[in-house]
Amino acid sequence: MKTSLFLIIVLVSGALAGFIHGSVNLAIVEPYLDEAIGIENQNLFASGEEEDTLEFWVEYEGYRTWQKSGQLLAGVILGTSVGALFGIVFALSRHSLPGKSNVKKALVLAGIMWLTLYFIPFLKYPANPPTVGDTETVVLRAILYLSFIAISGFATVGFYKLSKKFESKKKFISLAGYAIFIGAVFVAMPDNPDPITAPMELVEGFRAVSVLAVSSFWISVAIILGLLWNKFKPNQEITA
Predict the structure, then answer these.
(1) What residues have CB less than 8 Å from 106, skipping those under 6 apart?
(2) End-to-end CA distance of the chain
(3) CB count, 10 Å around CB of 121?
(4) Residue 119 C-alpha from the chain's centroid
């Protein structure tokens, strides 16, 4: 393995996929955030916690502009870190992944990681816009969500290793085992403690575009990594 070349490919693919993710967020997620924060502002005005003044809106617009301008940078940083994990897992599992090309293999792996590390936890703890959630439960909600991701991730690795002990026709046993296990965890773990007070149309729309935005990252990082792997072949040893 050409270590330096491997690291470059992994970091570049993660950064580019993160940039795409940040761009998609700006395009389809931010409008929902604007609407949700607008509702939150109106609630602040109604409760008397804030006053509907020019000074408030100048400060608000400046803050939101700063937030939006950082979307791409945040996407690149997050993409680089997650892309590094994806690249390492791909390098370790490439020979056992189905598919004749590295792009197809990477897409299969991305699909597995998307499902187990994102979508299944998302079904239990779906993303909510800013108007949903009590500030006092932020830590609890983060612990629950991250715990579910960790459990699902370790279970995937465990059942994958178990599947290697079975013949090809019996590998479905491990898949069924994971499904039963994660289903039990899904039921056993507590629900989100915060009631939904925002309009359901807004909440459901926000969740739908959030799935699309995250999915754009996993598709992008798989395709970019697969293409770069095909071109530079970091797995081949350097010959004299």
Answers:
(1) 90, 221, 222, 223, 225, 226, 229
(2) 15
(3) 24
(4) 8
